[in-house]
Specification:
The chain is built from 4 helices and 44 strands. By secondary structure, the protein is mainly beta. Strands 14, 22, 23, 24, 25, 26, 27, 28, 29 and 30 form a 10-stranded mixed β-sheet that branches. Strands 3, 15, 16, 17, 18, 19, 20 and 21 form an 8-stranded antiparallel β-sheet that branches. Strands 1, 34, 35, 38, 39 and 40 form a 6-stranded antiparallel β-sheet that branches.
């Protein structure tokens, strides 16, 4: 599961957007009102206790369906009936609410009514305010009046609502669902890697040729309790309409669509290391679905902004059998993975006959990776990198990666004359008659010379000191074939060196380039790479030419403390703290001496063997 692996690299680049983004879902600012713990003393509501064994049994994972990770509680929390609602002397209004659910790994809520006036702010925090979501504002108002919020880690969720005096109307808030996470899917608390060990990160070598298509694949959270996968998909107008294609068993109603949260770029920046960003949009509208075929098409309420780096995948509605197939997905809600079958899939009927006959592609055996619960709805791509289906389910696992079934895109294309039961009406709105369409990059600009330093390829987990051969992936964003590049690279404070690369890189293709060997000494290092010239011309867009690794080469002996635990209830005379640490050095450790101080005076020594 790799849950204990630690992260040692930070990647900073103009070609990859920042790892925190608030986009249209939240507005980055400081709270206009900040509460203290004492203010929540009378604002607590406790959820019913859960029998974990019972709820886990209900979270079925048969045939790799959607993954249920949370128990939903129906509630009716408003400022008028829950928590503490205060009108300040100056006319400002404050609503404080603390939701407590014992042994929850995280909590998330769904607003049945969310309508804020200008100037109002809603913030959500964990118990000690080390994790915050907000501010949600009038920008989040929608026609449906609903809003689903992503999880907050821990068993307590603090809500803080501020409404200034003199607003044109009073805010309306009604929480209808509180969802108790019983599987610990909030990966940021303890690293990533909850899917099984044979799954392959999208940024490992198997994903090198799929760096454009991966941007279309999103992790989704449905109704605050289920996880699936799916993909943004192109239409014949190529106008960036935010259609999203997935399985109907992930969601097939307007209520489901309204309460979806879409996670963009939920992937590790390196092969098996690095931390994914949290970039989400909330809400969509149901466009088309069919339970007989297991497909759903929704339209996101918001256009994904440029820093979410979206891509709309192409498709093939001919029904032709591909030479091989690939799926990109989020197994068990984990970071983005890739699986590949080197053989042509076969047309078949889903094993339990719950869908129409002969409407599925059958993957007999995955040659790379597998799928799991949470992979449902993931796109199946052909060798031309076009979608030909979405994952219904199957038997595949790391133990025996066989028998997966993908609903056939070509069957769903126009199986019905009713628009909301087919794909063609929406994905070919100008009735072009096209049965094949390539993907669409909504924020790409047509340039003749544009080389994109797409990523720096880094070994998993750590780099060993000594000789190291850096590798980079370069993508041709321009309209002209790239035959030469000048690449500047430097290690730490050393003067920059130049590599002259020659070859043939066609437009909208990528290649991996090895740089000359460098020597890393133990400890921290900085490695900087810049693309300076394309075909002996100046690059027409330099914002995607720079990449920087702030890395770490392992020392012989080195430990890192990543958490300390203290009992919530302490005896006056006895203290039993615990320290969690990881060995990030090259050698095995047989003992570690630990020294800590109490109140900056008394020192305590301990030895771990």
């Amino acid at each position: 599961m790799n849950a204990g692996k630690k992260i040692f690299f930070v990647f900073t680049s103009f070609l990859m957007v920042g790892f925190t983004s608030l986009a249209q879902l939240k507005v980055l600012q400081k709270p206009s009102f900040s509460s203290t713990p004492e203010m929540f003393a009378n604002a607590v509501v406790a959820m019913p206790e859960l029998n974990l064994e019972t709820v886990k049994k209900s979270a079925t994972n048969e045939l790799n369906g959607k993954l249920t990770f949370a128990k939903a509680f129906d509630v009716n929390f408003t400022p008028q009936n829950s928590g503490v609602y205060t009108v300040m002397p100056n006319g400002n209004k404050i609503w404080l609410l603390k939701i407590s659910s014992q042994i929850a790994f995280s909590l998330n809520i769904i607003f049945e009514k969310f309508h804020l006036p200008p100037g109002a702010e809603l913030w959500l925090y964990n118990a000690d305010k080390t994790y915050a979501l907000g501010a949600y504002t009038a920008l989040n108002n929608s026609k449906s009046g609903k809003l689903a919020i992503e999880p907050v880690p821990g068993s307590e969720l603090l809500l803080e609502y501020f409404e200034p005096a003199g607003v044109p109307f009073a805010g309306e808030l009604l929480i209808s669902k509180v969802n108790h996470d019983f599987l610990d899917v909030f990966k940021a608390l303890r690293g990533f890697g909850d899917s099984d060990v044979c799954n392959v990160d999208i940024n490992c070598d198997a994903g090198n040729e799929w760096q454009m298509q991966k941007r279309a694949v999103l992790k989704t959270m449905i109704n605050g309790k289920d996880l699936c996968s799916g993909a943004l998909i192109n239409n014949s107008l190529q106008n960036g309409t935010p259609y999203f294609y997935t399985a109907s068993h992930c969601g097939d109603t307007q209520t489901d669509a309204e309460n979806w949260i879409f996670y963009f770029q939920y992937e590790r920046p390196f092969c098996n290391s690095g931390t994914p960003p949290i970039k989400t949009l909330s809400g969509s509208d149901l466009v088309a679905t069919s339970g007989n075929l297991d497909f759903t098409l929704v339209k996101l309420k918001d256009i994904p902004p440029p820093d979410f780096n979206p891509f709309y995948a192409g498709w093939d509605a001919t029904g032709n059998t591909p030479n091989y197939s690939v799926t990109i997905h989020h197994p068990s809600g984990d970071v983005k993975k890739i699986s590949r079958d080197n053989d042509p899939p076969q047309t078949t009927t889903y094993p339990d006959n719950s869908y129409d006959s002969n409407v599925h592609w059958h993957i007999a055996k995955w040659d790379v990776g597998t799928t799991e619960g949470g992979s449902s709805g993931a796109p199946l791509f052909d060798q031309n990198k076009r979608i030909i289906g979405d994952l219904t389910g199957g038997e595949a696992s790391c133990t025996k990666s066989v028998n997966d079934y993908f609903q056939k895109f070509a069957v769903a294309w126009k199986i019905s004359e009713i628009p909301d039961r087919q794909l063609k009406h929406w994905l070919d709105p100008n009735n072009s008659g096209a049965l094949v369409l390539d993907g669409f990059d909504p924020y790409a600009v047509n340039r003749q010379f544009d080389a994109n330093l797409f990523r720096i390829i880094v070994p998993s987990d750590t780099i060993e000191p000594g000789n190291y051969i850096p590798e980079i992936m370069v993508y041709n964003n321009g309209s002209t074939t790239i035959t030469s590049l000048k690449i500047a690279y430097k290690l730490n404070a050393e003067p920059a060196k130049i590599l002259d690369w020659t070859g043939e890189l066609l437009k909208h293709n990528s290649t991996v380039i090895k740089l000359p060997e460098v020597i890393l000494t133990a400890g921290n290092f900085t490695f900087e790479i810049t693309l300076t010239e394309v075909n002996a011309q100046s690059d027409e867009f330099t914002d995607n030419n720079l990449g920087v690794i702030n890395g770490y080469a392992r020392k012989d002996y080195d430990i890192k403390i990543y958490s300390t635990d203290m009992p919530k209830t302490l005896c006056a005379s006895n203290l039993f703290p615990s320290v969690n640490f990881v060995n990030i050095g090259k050698n095995d450790l047989s003992s570690v001496s630990i020294r800590m101080s109490v109140n900056n005076t008394n020192e305590i020594s301990s030895r771990y063997h």
